[in-house]
Structure formats: structure tokens, C-alpha cells
Specification:
Layout (H helix, E strand, L loop, with lengths): L24 H11 L6 E2 L5 E3 L1 H10 L1
Antiparallel strand pairs: 1-2
Helix pairs in contact: 1-2
Length: 63
């Protein structure tokens, strides 16, 4: 596994993500603002999200 920093615009959501948790985005954004990223967004080789859609949405809203 390689950890690197990317702009939210360089990451693509997985189109078949089954979770609809838009209600949590504001709370996650506040947490990221206060504490920073505690857990990275996991993407595959193509930059598609494997884990971390809510964190991505929160970061994208502040991008």
C-alpha cells in the first residue's frame, strides 16, 4: 500500500457504492477540519474509491 496526497477532484467515486450517507457529510467535514484526516481514502489503481466515500464528499465540499 502506498499513501499519497491527491486533490479530491483527482478521485472518482465508485458508481455502485450502496451507501447513501449524505446526512453525515457535514459532520465528517467538521471532524476533518478539527482533527485532519485520521483515516485515508482508499482508491484503486485507477483512482476509484474503494473505501471513504463520505470522507471524499466532505473533502470535495471544502476543496
Amino acid at each position: 500500500m502506498k499513501i499519497e496526497q491527491r486533490a479530491p477532484s483527482a478521485i472518482t467515486p465508485y458508481e455502485k457504492n450502496p451507501r447513501d450517507n449524505d446526512a453525515a457529510v457535514d459532520a465528517v467535514a467538521e471532524s476533518i477540519t478539527r482533527l485532519g484526516f485520521r483515516q485515508p481514502i482508499v482508491v484503486d489503481e485507477a483512482g476509484v474509491i474503494v473505501c471513504g466515500h463520505t470522507r471524499w464528499k466532505a473533502a470535495r465540499n471544502s476543496d
